């Protein structure tokens, strides 16, 4: 340890170098000392940066990626710089393989203290052009992958009785985004898993949080819209300190939270809640539901989606241009 991780070694690609801590950045040396962490999807992009930062902070890492060569590249890069890492080429979408990732961590490093559920897929499609098979594949990785690896890690952590920290990678898209319905739904599921697991696991000393990142990776290169929102200086290395903080003991008492970081901005995401007024009737028929919306809820409709679109019924009150002259 203690070497300059910003220096490329022969054979490093730009992508690999992008995962390294940036020059001058505090890397919290020793923060992860004695801890073993699984990072899924660690062959490139955000996962690679998370794995490198955990190792740089003294943690032992299982660098998992379905692309086994890339997983090995990340693990080798960490070892070359004096860190501890093994590679896993398992597929998180298969429960048995997810179990093997966790088993590998326990076998190599004597236990599992942290899990970063990062592996994911995305694609853009308008709903009427979407493809059921592509949707199924995405849900299998983004939702079942998190469930599979999460359950295996949780069992190992509960059995060991030493607590732990799980960081799920969700997305601001979970609030709803155009052309990203299936991806948004998968990240909404990750948010719900985060809240539910945080409730279930508090007594076992296992904290569960989610991070909504924005970083210049392959996922962003595929979309012109994302590229506009995410310039190249938003590197994965700028998100990694948030994940490192949530994995480390400094975030004790923080669980069930969704934290968004897009490079310069860091904030807590608001969570859905049961909104007042809550009207009561012994039975609701369609007529009284209509009355409830006409007389009460019309003023309580929510702006929707990440873009906070005003519901059509309210637009006449919010639009500055009169509809007649528009
Ligand atoms: N880049 C962003 O701005 C952004 C924004 C919000 C959320 N995210 C989320 O961050 C995570 C990482 O995204 P990224 O931008 O680094 O993407 P990426 O495509 O660069 O990396 C994802 C990695 O996951 C691996 N992977 C895919 N399926 C897998 C499987 N079944 N098992 C194991 N590994 C698998 C891929 O091989 C790839 O190396 C994803 O969950 C993504 O949804 C990214």
UniProtKB/TrEMBL annotation:
Region named Disordered: 1-29
Matches recorded under InterPro entries: NAD(P)-bd_dom_sf, Sc_DH/Rdtase_CS, SDR_fam
Gene Ontology MF terms: oxidoreductase activity, acting on the CH-OH group of donors, NAD or NADP as acceptor
Comp. bias intervals (Polar residues): 1-10
Gene3D superfamilies in alphabetical order: NAD(P)-binding Rossmann-like Domain
CDD domains linked to this entry: SDR_c
Key words, A-Z: Oxidoreductase
PANTHER family: SHORT-CHAIN DEHYDROGENASES/REDUCTASES FAMILY MEMBER
Protein name: NAD(P)-dependent dehydrogenase, short-chain alcohol dehydrogenase family
Organism: Amycolatopsis australiensis
